[in-house]
Please model this.
Amino acid sequence: MNFLQLIEQKRDGGELSPEAIAKAVNAFANGSVPDYQMAAFLMAIQFQGMTLAETRALTLAMRDSGEVLQFPEDDRPIVDKHSTGGVGDKVSLPLAPLLACLGYRVPMISGRGLGITGGTLDKLESIPGFTTQLSAEQFVGQVQEIGVALGGQTDEIAPADKALYALRDVTGTVPSVPLITASILSKKLAENLDALVMDVKFGAAAFMHTRDDARALAKSIVNLATECGVQTTALLTDMDTPLGCAAGNWLEVKESIACLEGNGPKDLKELVIACAAQLPGCDANRAATELASGRPRILFNKLLAAQGADLGAFETKLKQETPAPVVRELPARGNGFVARCDARIIGEVVRDLGGGRQTKDSEIHPDVGLDQMLKPGEAIDRPLCRIHARTEADAEMAAERLVAAFEIADERPGLDPLICEILG
Ligand code: URA
Model:
């Protein structure tokens, strides 16, 4: 295959055949196309877009770069949720065990952080001993046994997405409707789902800045997933403000546990319940009652044990105020109310504290980030947030940049809804 010709064809606005796309994906997945050529190809797609037929071909080729999970016949529907990426977005962590307790099978294949948005895999790997690298057999076995498994793309499951995702993260090629659609659905179709709920974010810290762009992405995902036999709905949700009060891998695990124990922030609980309520056979009351029962919290530990976590070390870490070497409060420079808590600035600061990547090989520092964030509408009766850092210099850098993230007003501001639209 002449990969250079393919890059040039896409660069010049041509339409690629499904066969050419499948060959390109396979060649990259088996290592015969170098990163620099694939990066150029991705950038050509970023600028030129893809037709529906091209997006479908890319999605199916990425799915078929690995195995499609095969589950035994069973009464429990196979379902999942995926987010297009946000700051403080930890919904998958409490939602996955909740769905299993509600009687679904949940083979959740997630991703790492992308750009300034956090990733479920990075969050889970802040738990001592937890592995996200499961074989297809382990995935199926665990889902059959306890109802849920949380893992990443591997050499066996959606390997093309594993490689493309890491490359897109560091080449400015994330915010593309066809690339996001193919990335998400290659993983979700590899799970062999009956139903999917999508959380499509828009706003300052989302890949889609406007609601119109988010709607276009949601339609692309819902239409293709539905065509592939997966009953799919999408929530359009606000990502101008971080979700919950913590951003950073371990701090988000801790907040997810609070949610499972009935103490988490209101917006997180609202979104967890709303996602569950979109699935066939569920509604918000059932989801809220099950969440409050404590059973999903117990199942979360079962899931951790099944995936190698050291439960003793996990519970000890949970009891620590912070495992980060430096913790510092950010005082408010005025009185009144928080009018804006800018998720973009917060995401950038958390990434630069070491919570995200600048290059493919960047090391993640799981314990850094922010917590106890004051959110829009809240009175300023305490510091704006706490900074968890590796060094005093990092904490200082964060404190300086975070001042611009919080806008203060004399009057309590009106608030936009978190969930703005439901499609599908
Ligand atoms: N989540 C994914 O899995 N892929 C993307 O491209 C964006 C969000």
